[in-house]
Each structure stands twice: as C-alpha cells, then as structure tokens.
Amino acid sequence: MKMIAGLGNPGKQYEMTRHNAGFFVIDELSKRLDIPLDKAKFNGVYGTGFSGGEKVILVKPLTYMNLSGECIRPLMDYYDVGDEDLAVVYDDLDLPTGKVRLRMKGSAGGHNGIKSTILHLGTQEFNRVRIGISRPPAGMKVPDYVLGRFAKEEEPLIKEAVSISADACEAWLRKPFLQVMNEYN
Fold this sequence. Notes:
The chain is an alpha/beta fold. It has six helices and seven strands. The protein has a single domain, classed as Peptidyl-tRNA hydrolase (Rossmann fold).
C-alpha cells in the first residue's frame, strides 16, 4: 500500500495559489486513477483505490499547510503505511517555476508543511516530489508570494509540472522510488 499526500491549504481563497501545487497533483491523480477523494478522516480528505495491483491512498490534508503532519501521520498509522511507502508532493521556492525534482530524504528547507511532516513522522527519510514555484520578486514577502496566484505566463509551466509530477507518482506505483527519481530528475 502506498500513500501520496499533496500539500496545500483548504478553502476557495487558496484554490489556485502557488502553495497548493501538491493539491493540484492529487486532483490530477484522482482523475487519472479514478480514485475519488470521498473520505474524510484525521483532518484530511482522501480516497483509496488500486493501480496496477497496488493499493493507493491519495490525500489532501485540510489542516492548512503548516500542520500537514497532523493529518499524514494518523492516516499512515490507520492504514499501516510505512515511511518508505509515503510520497509527499509540494511547492518549492528553491526550484525554478515548473521544474520538478524528486528526493528520498532531506531537510524541510524552510517549508513549513514539510517541517510539520518531519516532526510528526519523526524522520526526514520519506519520498518527496517538489514542484518549483521560484522565489518572490524583490520586496515581496514569502507568505504573500506563496499565497498568491500564478502569473499568466507561469500557468503552462505549472500545468506541465503537475502532469510530470503525476506521471512520476504513477511510475512509483510500479517501480522503486530510486528508479523513478533517476528517470525524472
């Protein structure tokens, strides 16, 4: 059984913001894999299904970004998902807009959703799919930037990044994450 958690913020006002890149990927996977997000538990919405014989849980924590681990850990415990069977999808300021990078471990890099996940898992060793959103322009505060919407010229880059991220997640359902990482990085 594998769990893919996409990080973001719930609510209409956050729907199309940079910080919701993880939610975009979960929505895409939900469509592709025909796994509706029809369950609610542990401050999250999620769905369960199968892909290629592998049981899959898609989850969007509704705890707001900074408390994402409060949803992920209890759901992992409930379904007995090991740390190696978790992939977290999220936005990353340190990558150019639209760039996708996979990692198997690492620090939070200043990302509060990942800080919370590390805190609740008790480890930095879990799979990650990072979607680049670039740094804010000079003079703009990070919270204002990540909670802002993509510029018109960024939209095709993000759409492509969401598609690539979903492709990578689907590949992980059939192959080891290290192999997928080598293919997609």
